[in-house]
Amino acid sequence: MSFRQSRFFQFPWRSRTQIMGDIDTELNFHLEMRVAELVGQGLTPEEAARRAREEFGDVEFTRSYCRDVDLRTERSVRSADRMVAWRQDAKYAWQTLRRSPGFAVVSLLTLALAIGANTAIFSVARAVLLKPLPFGTPSALMRVFESWPQNPSAHTPLSPPNFVDYRTQQHTFTDLAALQQWSVTWRPENADPAILTALAVSASMFNVLQVGALHGRTFSPGDDTPGNTFKAIVSHGFWQRALGGDVARIGGRITLNDRAYDLIGVMPRGFTVGANEDVWTPLDLSDEIAHATVTRKQHWVHAIGRLKPGIAIDAARADLRTISRRLEVQYPEADSGRVAVLVPLHEVVAGDLRSPILLLQGAALMVLLIACANLANLTLSRTMGRRREMALRAALGASRARLIGQLLTESVLLSLVGGAIGVGLAVVATRLLLRLNPETLPAMFAAGLDSRVLLFSFVLSVATGVLFGLMPALDAARADLHDSLKEGGRGTSGGRGERVRRALVVVQVGLAVMLLVGAGLLLRSFGELTRVRMGFEPDHVLTAEITASGVRYDSAAAVNLLYDGVLGDIARSPGVVAVGAAMVLPTRGHMNTSVRVQGEPADEKNLPDLGYVSVRGDYFKAMHIPLLAGRGYDASDRPDGPKTAIINQTAAHRFFPKGNAIGGRIRIGPRPDTPWMTIVGVVGDIRDEGLDIETKPTLFANHVQEAWDRTLNIVIRTAGDPDAATHVLRSAVKAADPGLALREVRSLDQVVGSSLAARRFALGLAACFAGVALLLAAVGIYGVLAYMVTTRTREFGVRLALGATTVNVVLLVLRQGLGWSLFGLALGIGGAIVAGRLLSGMLFGVSATDVTTYLVVATGSVIVVVVACIVPAARATRVDPLESIRAE
Amino acid sequence: MHRTPSELLQGTVDILILRALAWESMHGYAISRWLDRGSDGVLAVEGAALYQALHRLEHRKLVAASWGLSENNRKAKFYTLTPPGRARLRAESAVWKAYANAVSKILSPA
């Protein structure tokens, strides 16, 4: 036996008092021995005692010195002992697990799924909700909006003059910066042109965000003043992809929209202000400021501000609102009822994602809890079987703490291994899911594993191991020595363990039912959405975005000439049924303006809203939007002729309730000098803002007469495969102007589908979680019943011997299983009704207490439970009465 | 009585103790007697220094301690050389012998 082990057994851990006592015993022994020796040499006892102490030296100092040394020794011994004990436990746990591979595999699989799901969701939650935005001191960044007089809870971008007034008059921000998204056509020297997403930004933007250029520089003050704006900064991605990552290109020129821009800098990899944009150009507002009477009513400036250090958001809000009140007084016509609204930038970017992510994380945690209940059950059954082993170890001197420690080591080890596998699964799953659904997350967020996510998974794994291992460990360590050894290894039936197991099954079923209801409601919502009457038919339609960019399209005539040519060319091609174009495609939103009906009294301060989409060509025919009254646009609607309008059914009902829409006249926008438009047609409603948004009154203006918007989405209805029209489209555009580019060439089905991407993503995950939960719960019920049947073999034998039929026995087992499950079901439904309200924001067309969903979930759960009960029940009937009794 | 020269280093006491335990386990008093006898009283070590050294050596795991019964049937703490202690004794002895040789060479008359 090595010295370390002998040390371990001979000296149990010593307390401070024991250590002091030991030192005194040792030193006194020395002194007494010396005294005895000196007395033997003839000294008197007093003389001898004096001599002995004198020879010894400083006794008190030695005592305290030895105490300090021994306390240190004790500490290192204890930690070494703990290490040894832990290593023994781990080794023992490993061996135990290897002896029961079935248990290990089932547990590991369960743990890997549950911890993996949590890790995957957490990596997204961390990226979107927890990680600071990739800007300097991002918590000080605010978006500035204005409230909307008609709807105080909604907010709009600022008007350019208001933005300038806020910027110059405020005291609480280091600065405000404006941004507006646009698209530019980039014309490389020897390649096809391409449309790029660009942001026009105040020169101060990069200072506000506190992000510098990777190469070159960002904008300097004055770059956004007239004559200085032909400067561009490009994204790292564009620089790599299109400019070969060549530093020498910085300081050179690039051609955007036929204009030469000085390329002054490249931003760091991944930098975006939110649109995944490739180009930043200066935003010059001087023209708008010069025409402030008009532009103060145009709300399109998105503003970002940085709070001065130490300024709270409330102080900044109060500051801006003082300015709002001043503006209301100064410009009542444009600004009355408009108040500055401050929202932290992070909230604006992550806002919509917060509740789905939190709900999914909650669902994942519920799956983990169910897994814990399952594993606790499994472990409980196992430790029941191991009672003899435990009792034996206890008899051999293992303390209760040591036994619990050993069992906990087993469960924690198991959950750590399971967690490690789970993290691996999470990495693969997250990458895969995000690749399949690229539009789910905003560009600013990069979900992935970092040290925090790994820490989360580690802590979660340990907690899981303790959670499912503690109860069985406590139970096993409490095992009565005599009973266990005497009973010949059969666990006691009934009693505490049994009750705990039933409680676990109840909890499991309850949680699973809650998840199923949640997933069911989301599924029903999705079903409702796909059944929504869209008002157009997305199949067999090809779409593409095109921008008439460049100086040569500065006149409306040139724009009209271009689009007439392109659309006419496509219309004449074989296989094309109809072709048209719209400023924005259905489900992608629309602009908003205000409307006044001729001859009707109007509240000038509170004009009704009207959605605005300009269209041209055979748009309605290509989209299969029915013409309900009047006519579509035709050649009689001249660019410079009287203005004509087509409105949707909702607008016709709202503004012309007597059915006299055709021939009625409306004026859009705030300016009183805008010409009246005569309504020539009414078309059916379409879901243009999104499938889940009710149709609002909308004007489909004639792009021929409103050609100021140079970006259009061409829609081509084809007889056959819409993709086949791609080359027709490209050659028509090339023939009209080889300098123009197309973007987002895809079918309308894809456009509509992508509007549901986030919803589909959340639904898919929720359904997966619910499925796993149900499976786990079924396995749990099966496990408990199977165990019960095993422990009650004798009872069943007796019952069968006394004349019970197999049906009686089956019913007995079923009643047990179903009884607990129904209780769990009831609890789960109660929980779902309470928690369902959290989901209501994500539902469409169903209420959170949709009876059908609850019924289906309840029925489904009962069926699964019955199936889980049948195998153990059948086994109970196969008990041979004689065998079972003889086995005792 | 013999006083330990103050310049007798801690290290010297340590090596003497290790040497004392080379053959058998001993309690502190026995070690002190052994040192006294073995050096004819020249190297008698003060009890204070001896026990401080013993506890230090125990902390450094060069000796191990266990309770046992003394010759006169009293509870006493016995010290045993551990394998690292034996290795240390071997190494230190060599150094000491070389050192002692050098010193005596210098001090002996030419």
Could you give the topology of this structure?
The complex is a heterodimer of chains A (888) and B (110).
Chain A (H helix, E strand, L loop, with lengths): L2 H8 L5 H25 L4 H12 L2 H41 L1 H30 L10 E8 L2 E6 L3 H10 L3 E14 L7 E8 L3 H5 L5 E2 L14 E4 L1 H8 L9 E4 L2 E8 L12 E4 L3 H5 L1 H4 L6 E6 L5 H18 L1 H4 L4 E5 H41 L1 H9 L4 H37 L14 H28 L2 H6 L8 H37 L9 E7 L8 H16 L4 E7 L8 E7 L11 E9 L1 H5 L3 E4 L13 E5 H7 L9 E4 L8 E7 L14 E5 L8 E8 L7 H11 L5 E6 H7 L2 H35 L1 H9 L4 H30 L15 H27 L3 H6 L2
Parallel strand pairs in A: 4-9, 6-8, 15-20, 17-19
Antiparallel strand pairs in A: 1-2, 1-10, 1-11, 3-4, 3-10, 5-8, 6-9, 7-8, 12-21, 12-22, 13-15, 13-21, 14-15, 14-18, 16-19, 17-20, 18-19
Helix pairs in contact in A: 2-3, 2-4, 4-15, 5-13, 5-15, 5-16, 6-11, 13-16, 13-18, 13-24, 15-16, 18-24, 18-26, 18-27, 19-22, 24-26, 24-27, 26-27
Chain B lengths: L9 H11 L5 E2 H11 L8 H13 L3 E7 L5 E7 L1 H25 L3
Antiparallel strand pairs in B: 1-3, 2-3
Helix pairs in contact in B: 1-3
Q: Indicate the overall shape of chain B.
A: globular
Q: Note the gap between the termini of chain B.
A: 33 Å
Mean pLDDT of chain B: 84
Output the CATH class name of chain B. Answer: Mainly Alpha
Low-confidence stretches of chain A: 1-10, 487-494
